[in-house]
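> forwarded from #structure-qc
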């Protein structure tokens, strides 16, 4: 079975990404491979992990994790075969919370696939463009298909503090279907590479 995580990349109270993540999980549940029981798609909310600014003394590539929050995050990421990142665009890039969470780990990301769903005034396209080279450095196969959601065209928002209601249009439904197809296919294709290595284990705190 292939397991895909929908990673909600903003921790801001009232973030609009929560509605985006729910939409992705609901649409993924109707994917033929999910209906057949061959794929499971689950939400992963960074806010649930409460990660501080990176506080591990050793570089992530050694897998020598000393903190309980790091080990918990490591176990979560290691359990998935692919990812769909949901990211807003903050000042021409991804949120600091998302980059921080990515930097906590190394081998847990490797030889997996990733797709991107961005949202913002310009659809989150620049956040996605910044994520792609980060994924490449971590040996993650980022797929070509992506989804971009505009704050003014794709959300019904009553005030600046209102998270709004997501109203995706038909072409975005089609784009998400294509993204899921690619993430699932590449997650399967990379399975032999994942099987040929052992994910770094957290260091014992004995």
């Amino acid at each position: 079975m292939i397991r895909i995580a929908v990673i909600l990349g903003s921790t801001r109270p009232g973030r609009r990404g929560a509605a985006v993540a729910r939409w992705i999980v609901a649409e993924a549940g109707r994917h033929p491979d999910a209906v057949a029981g061959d794929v499971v798609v689950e939400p992963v909310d960074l806010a649930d992990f409460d990660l501080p600014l990176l506080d591990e003394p050793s570089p992530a590539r050694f897998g020598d994790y000393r903190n309980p929050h790091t080990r918990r995050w490591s176990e979560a990421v290691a359990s998935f075969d692919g990812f769909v990142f949901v990211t807003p665009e903050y000042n021409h890039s991804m949120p600091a919370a998302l980059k921080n969470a990515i930097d906590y780990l190394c081998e847990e990301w490797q030889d997996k696939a990733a797709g991107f769903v961005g949202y913002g005034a310009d659809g989150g396209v620049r956040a996605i463009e910044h994520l792609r080279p980060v994924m490449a450095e971590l040996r993650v196969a980022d797929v070509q298909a992506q989804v971009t959601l505009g704050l003014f065209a794709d959300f019904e928002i009553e005030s600046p503090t209102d998270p709004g209601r997501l109203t995706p249009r038909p072409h975005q439904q089609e784009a998400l279907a294509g993204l899921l197809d690619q993430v699932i296919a590449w997650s399967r294709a990379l399975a032999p590479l994942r099987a040929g290595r052992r994910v770094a284990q957290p260091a014992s705190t004995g």
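QC bot note: Helices lie at 17-28, 32-35, 68-78, 96-103, 125-137, 170-189, 191-195. The first helix runs from residue 17 to 28.
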